[in-house]
Design goal:
Elements: H1 8-11, H2 13-23, H3 36-70, H4 90-94, H5 102-121, H6 124-145, H7 156-173, H8 176-189, H9 205-221, H10 224-235
GO molecular function, one term: peptidase activity
Subcellular location: Membrane
Transmembrane segments: 46-64, 112-138, 150-167, 179-197, 203-222
C-alpha cells in the first residue's frame, strides 16, 4: 500500500469491480454512470440480489436450528468456547449460525433481515466484506474475553456489527445519503447498543461488543476510497485510484 492511502481502496470489492469495468469502457453495476434506465436497472438488481441473499441466509439459520432441534441441541456445542483451542476456535466460524432455541432465533430474525439487507445495499461485495470483518472480529474478541466455561452463539453479533457499520460508514466517507440511512438506523435500532454492556445473564455482551467494534472497523476500512479522495481534494490534487 502506498503512503497516505486508505485501506479501503485495497479491500472494497465493489470499488475494484467498478474500476475493472471502467478499464473496459463500462462499469457494470455502477449507479453513478450511464443512462437513467441503466441506473434504475442496476439499482433494481442490487435490491433483488440483497433480498435473495439475506432471505437465503435466514432460511439457512432456520434450517440449521431445525437440524439442531432434531439432534437434541448438540450442535450448540460448536459455538465459541472462550480460550479453548481444542475445538473452541471452530466456534468463530460456526457461532453466528447457531442459536440457543427457537425463541433466540426468532428474536434475531427481524434485525438480521433488516440490517443485513441494508448492509448489502451498500454494494453486494462491500456488504459481504463488511460481514466477514464483523464475523471474524466478533468471534475472535469473544473467544479471547468470554467467560470460562461458557458457550457463545447467535447471529446477534452480526446484527450489532451491521448496525455500527451502517451508522459509521456514511460518516467516515462523508456521504450524505449514507449518513441519512445511518441516522434512521440509529433512531430505529440504536437502543440495541445497550446490549454491549455486561449485566444480563445468558446474553453474550462480548459478542455484541466485538460485533459492534467489527462494524466500526468495516466502516473505516471500506470507506478508504472516499477518505483518500477527501485528503487529495484538500491538498488540491486529483487522487488516482489504484
Amino acid at each position: 500500500m502506498t503512503d497516505g492511502a486508505g485501506l479501503g481502496a485495497s479491500f472494497d470489492p465493489d470499488r475494484i469491480a467498478a474500476l475493472r469495468g471502467a478499464t473496459k469502457g463500462k462499469a457494470p453495476g455502477s449507479l453513478g454512470s450511464g443512462s437513467h434506465p441503466d441506473r434504475f436497472g442496476a439499482l433494481r438488481r442490487l435490491w433483488l440480489q440483497a433480498g435473495v441473499l439475506i432471505a437465503g441466509f435466514v432460511a439457512l439459520l432456520y434450517g440449521i436450528e431445525g437440524v439442531d432441534t432434531l439432534d437434541d441441541h448438540r450442535l450448540d456445542q460448536a459455538g465459541i468456547h472462550p480460550r479453548q483451542a481444542d475445538g473452541g476456535l471452530w466456534g468463530i466460524l460456526f457461532a453466528p449460525v447457531l442459536h440457543g432455541g427457537w425463541d433466540h432465533l426468532i428474536g434475531n430474525t427481524l434485525p438480521v433481515l433488516v440490517l443485513g439487507f441494508l448492509a448489502l445495499l451498500a454494494g453486494i461485495g462491500r456488504g459481504l466484506a463488511a460481514t466477514a470483518i464483523i464475523w471474524i472480529v466478533a468471534g475472535a474478541g469473544t473467544w479471547l474475553t468470554g467467560g470460562s466455561g461458557t458457550v457463545h452463539l447467535g447471529a446477534s453479533a452480526l446484527v450489532f456489527g451491521w448496525l455500527t457499520f451502517l451508522i459509521s460508514r456514511g460518516w467516515f466517507g462523508r456521504h450524505v445519503g449514507q449518513i441519512v440511512v445511518g441516522l434512521v438506523v440509529l433512531v430505529v435500532y440504536g437502543s440495541l447498543l445497550w446490549g454491549v454492556l455486561p449485566g444480563q445473564n445468558g446474553i453474550s455482551w462480548q459478542g455484541h461488543l466485538f460485533g459492534a467494534m467489527g462494524g466500526l472497523l468495516a466502516g473505516w476500512v471500506l470507506s478508504g476510497d472516499e477518505r483518500r479522495q477527501r485528503r487529495a481534494d484538500r491538498a488540491g490534487v486529483v487522487a488516482s485510484p489504484r
